[in-house]
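In response to reviewer comment 3 from the previous cycle, which asked for concrete evidence that the modeling workflow produces usable outputs, we include below a single protein chain processed end to end. The sequence was submitted unchanged, and the resulting structure tokens are shown without manual editing.
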Amino acid sequence: MTTIEDPTTATDAADLEAFVGRFVTDLAAVAHAATVVVGDKLGLYQAMAEQGPATCADLAAATGCDERYLREWLSAQVASEYAHHDPATDRFWLDPAQATCLGDPSNPGFLAGGMTVASSMHKDEATIRAAFTTGAGVGWHEHHHDLFLGTERFFRPGYAANLVERWVPALDGVQEKLEAGALVADVGCGHGASTILLAQAFPNSRFVGSDYHGPSIEVARQRAAEAGLADRVQFEVAGADEFSGTGYDLVCIFDALHDMGDPVAAAAHIRSALADDGTWLLVEPAAGDTLEDNANVVGRIFYSASTMICTPGSRSQPGARCLGAQAGDARLREVAEAGGFTRFRRATATPFNAVLEVRP
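The workflow returned the following structure tokens.
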């Protein structure tokens, strides 16, 4: 008789070694992530990008940081291949790719802000762990403030690179409306980065940003004033199913629908607020329709973020639909159709975003 070995108990030495290697690699990355947040917040990467090859003493003088702490931090960057070191001169530097991703927040390739989001997830671990056992929600407003800072700094470069240049032109007739003068709502706008980018690109149009999180709206108002846009851009504290106004030519939701407790109610409100020939620009994390479709590095990021941020946020709101950050086009289409829309298509995409055109 043939004995079938239980795959949950059998251990192959090669498989074990491979998984140990994977785990140690991940542990190193998680440990290093904290140093990235420190370097980003203190401007260390920017100083390195500006100075070029420099000694630890040079960087200490430029940044006002303690030289011994910097020595250890720089060593961590080299060990993680986030920086280079010349042992002959004891100088450290960033190559052009590292400088772009770590030291230039204005560049579309800037990524360091994402580590601040990850850092906030660790700071909120006890709160989320408790929610696992009670089933309670955890609202956006209940998270560590690093989540708000990191979200803006991580997503804004992608919006700056794509929103005006690629996403708007991919929508049927929308760019022409914006150039002529349109009324636009940006729902779930957070600190207003997307709203302000659109307003700067289309000076004949008017914009209304909304978010239920009052402190984020205060930041958005300040950013609009600093940009000289207060006459055409306004912000209000309001949920996605209650923002004010009608006759919008364009309503936008950037990476926020899956966080909502009742996305169908949000879709229905958007439908009622749109002009008859209006467009809903829906940007969501890139995802396929099955778990297997999303078993990749992008899915790994978004499923983890969804576990710690998005699903608890939706659970905290009426409806508690919990779409998750890997909803996929099929489920998003269902939401749109339930909200009264009849046309739905993927207009374009990036490695991190699905860009969807939804129309009445």
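The mean pLDDT is 95. We consider this sufficient to address the reviewer's concern, and the full set will be provided in the supplementary archive.
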